[in-house]
Write a structure and sequence with these properties.
197 residues; alpha/beta; four-stranded mixed beta sheet; 6 helices; 8 strands
Length: 197
């Protein structure tokens, strides 16, 4: 039998991981709060949380600390999406090497942009886009926006997650494409297979 204190400890652990993950993700805190209502299984959610925790722990270590503020990490069904900006191509490769060393990762999608031209204005614009999309997608009928993650980097929006149907996924992508300030959409989301009866 699981005690109440064990449940509280488990919840606190997930919240702590979320806070660490949110350090590099403008909308990360909201994602952590909404995770239990998603279509992901508890086991998958646990694995994704562990992957995120392990990546952040490595980023805080001496070898990769210089990348911590530059990289956003989204783990969804053991697929890791890396977004953000790095100044050197070798740092993009280092980020993939870091994630490759983490247990449980099924696939790595490295969308880090190599550029030295990313400042406060660009970051503010990307945060505006991410927040606007959260509002727009939440208010769109026929979709469960909770099953998607999106990151805007220099106006390019990267999407990961799992839709309930191709129609739903198409609607999500259409909303993003039509959103003010979005220059381009790169889709890495997929359609979840129907559950067996």
């Amino acid at each position: 039998m699981i005690s109440i204190s064990s449940k509280i400890y488990g919840g606190a652990t997930i919240a702590l991981v979320g806070l660490l993950a949110a350090c590099t993700q403008p909308t990360g805190l909201v994602n952590v709060a909404s995770s239990p209502a998603e279509d992901r299984s508890i086991e998958t959610l646990r694995d994704d949380t562990a992957i995120t925790f392990d990546i952040n722990e490595i980023l805080l270590g001496e070898k990769y600390r210089d990348l911590f503020a530059e990289i956003s990490t989204d783990a969804y069904e053991r697929v890791v999406l890396l977004t953000g900006t790095v100044k050197f191509a070798q740092n993009k490769r280092r980020a993939s090497d870091l994630v490759r060393s983490v247990k449980g990762v099924k696939r790595i999608i490295n969308e880090l942009q190599v550029t030295s031209d990313y400042g406060i204005s660009s970051a503010a614009n990307d945060l505006w886009i991410e927040t606007k999309l959260k509002v727009l997608l939440l208010g769109t009928k026929g979709i469960r926006s909770i099953n998607y993650r999106w990151r805007s980097i220099n106006g390019t929006v990267y999407v990961i997650g799992a839709g309930r149907s191709q129609r739903e996924l198409n609607t999500v992508l259409d909303v993003i494409r039509k959103t003010e300030r979005v220059k381009k959409v790169v889709n890495h989301a997929w359609v979840r297979p129907p559950k067996a009866l």
